[in-house]
Q: What sequence folds into this?
């Protein structure tokens, strides 16, 4: 009987352990983000350069990890993975997303993984090549 009780406890512990839910990992970035700055390296010094609002643009992250332009279409060169504050999740497959027809002309040589650091209403996006851009959460509707 003692062995059975230990087995039940062990089984409960094993089944109770699970990986973080991808939706929970994505939650901090869900919403609309506007480009505010880009990182520039000059003479070995890295500095942030402010992007004027008229040139900024931005995108929206959905709950499933899809990245959309303001027109509701997914971005042309969608990543396969998102790494959000160090936790990697699968992004939706490109084929399952509503692609902008202009994307048929895009030559996607983009990062397979987008590295995202988010704190409150500020998001820093780092591509595999090292390029970094900073975004602020848009206020108002998505």
A:
């Amino acid at each position: 009987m003692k062995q059975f009780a230990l087995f039940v406890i062990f089984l409960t512990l094993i089944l109770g352990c699970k990986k973080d839910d991808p939706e929970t990992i994505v939650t901090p970035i869900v919403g609309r983000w506007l480009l505010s700055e880009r990182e520039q390296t000059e003479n070995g010094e890295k500095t942030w350069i402010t992007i004027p609002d008229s040139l900024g643009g931005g995108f929206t992250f959905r709950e499933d990890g899809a990245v959309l332009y303001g027109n509701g279409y997914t971005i042309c060169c969608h990543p396969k993975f998102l790494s959000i504050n160090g936790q990697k999740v699968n992004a939706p497959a490109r084929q399952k997303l509503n692609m902008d027809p202009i994307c048929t002309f895009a030559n996607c040589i983009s990062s397979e993984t987008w590295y995202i650091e988010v704190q409150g209403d500020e998001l820093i996006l780092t591509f595999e090549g090292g390029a970094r851009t900073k975004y602020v959460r848009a206020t108002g509707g998505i």
